[in-house]
Amino acid sequence: MSKKVKIGIIGSGGIAGAHVSAYRKLPFVEIAAVADVIPGKAREFVDKHGLEHTAAFDSHTDLLAQSLDGVSICTPNVSHHRTTIDSLRAGKHVLLEKPMSVTLAEAVEMVQVQKAAGSMLTLGFQPRYDPNMKKLQDIVQSGRLGNVYYVETGGGRRRGMPRGTFVSKRLAGAGAMADIGCYSLDMALNTLGYPRPVSVSAFTSNHFGTNSLYHPEADKFEVEDFGVAMVRFENELVLQFKISWAMHMDTLGATMFLGTDAGLKVTPAGSGPWSGVWDGAIGEMTLFHDDFGGHTSTAVPLIGHSLNLFDEKVRDFAEAVRDGRSAPIPGEQILIQQAIIDGVLRSAEARREVSVELP
Ligand SMILES: NC(=O)c1ccc[n+]([C@@H]2O[C@H](COP(=O)([O-])OP(=O)(O)OC[C@H]3O[C@@H](n4cnc5c(N)ncnc54)[C@H](O)[C@@H]3O)[C@@H](O)[C@H]2O)c1
């Protein structure tokens, strides 16, 4: 493709600005259009960002009628399904912000439409672009740990509860489990090659979000701020998954992979009350093994880099569109973690273990 890659942005709230900033670093990309359902909001956004040649629309369907190669979908979770399906049917490639959807049924339909349309559907998990995530995957998949039978992942913020659309059941669908849990799941599952889950037993609560002492929108807080789940997979593998937007604790611990020959402990980078979850890069990685006649641990040397992971995910999508490559983080794969999140919500509501049915 020698012409510029023409991109549209659907949803002009908080994260759309990061997409604009990343696309602007790519000389082969033109941000051709922005849309938001709130009348006038896309126009304001375009003006604020000095996007002189960018059209603004009050509806994503008007944006999709334009000649565009791809779209970034930056709407609240509940709108991911409709906007993605409409974009794929309009022949656009899609970079969809996480989490994929709210329910498994939505995600299944999104993948069916993507296959029928032949366009690309990729998910916005920027931590994948930390080169140390690849290193982690290489270590686990090399067989160095032996048979991996237990994984613990997730994390917790001491205080880090978002507001607005994130805490509305109608707009977000779910809380911490979907918002930041999806990163933990992607990190652990991608490392393992996305094994297939068979059942989930979960508990969720919202003691902090609904308390005005801790949250300014406590009267509007409808989602979970804490959740824990035990997920069983095929092949005798279990995963314990725990996530907290707020808690009276410093950390919910590291991610760990227990294998029959060695164990691997991984901690996230970052510090401060919003850290401790997998929405960024790897901080430390340690291998625990028995060698030299005793218990030994080895600090895995990390790859130093100065990559902006968010810019990397946007660049990869735009280059894939330009070069006709397949989706960097395919919807078909992320469907599997959506099945887990769906199972968590169903299990927490039913107060029992539920099975996970994958298509
Ligand atoms: N990858 C990341 O680091 C990251 C960070 C923050 C948020 N996110 C994700 O991005 C999404 C948006 O988050 P945000 O913080 O920008 O939310 P936000 O509420 O600030 O903005 C969302 C915007 O979408 C608009 N919108 C809703 N439905 C629409 C539709 N059908 N067509 C057009 N516009 C529509 C809303 O009016 C709003 O302006 C969420 O799914 C969130 O999980 C990702």
What does this structure look like?
One of its GO terms (molecular function) is nucleotide binding. Residues 134-263 form the GFO/IDH/MocA-like oxidoreductase domain. This is Gfo/Idh/MocA family oxidoreductase. Keywords: Oxidoreductase. InterPro entries: Gfo/Idh/MocA-like_OxRdtase_N (IPR000683), Gfo/Idh/MocA_oxidrdct_glycsds (IPR050463), GFO_IDH_MocA-like_dom (IPR055170), NAD(P)-bd_dom_sf (IPR036291). The chain is of the alpha/beta class and 359 residues long. It has two domains: 5-125 and 309-329, 3-Layer(aba) Sandwich (Rossmann fold); 127-307 and 339-355, Dihydrodipicolinate Reductase, domain 2 (2-Layer Sandwich). The protein is 31% helix and 25% strand. It is built from eleven helices and 15 strands. It has helices at residues 16-24, 41-48, 60-64, 80-89, 104-117, 131-141, 169-172, 176-179, 181-192, 309-323, 331-350; strands spanning 5-10, 29-35, 55-57, 70-73, 93-96, 121-123, 148-156, 197-205, 226-233, 237-244, 255-259, 262-268, 282-291, 294-299, 354-355. The strands form two sheets. It has a nine-stranded mixed β-sheet with strand order 14-13-12-11-7-10-9-8-15. A hairpin with a 2-residue loop joins strand 13 (282-291) and strand 14. The longest helix is centred in the C-terminal third of the chain and has 20 residues, at 331-350. The radius of gyration is 20 Å and the shape is globular. The mean pLDDT is 95.
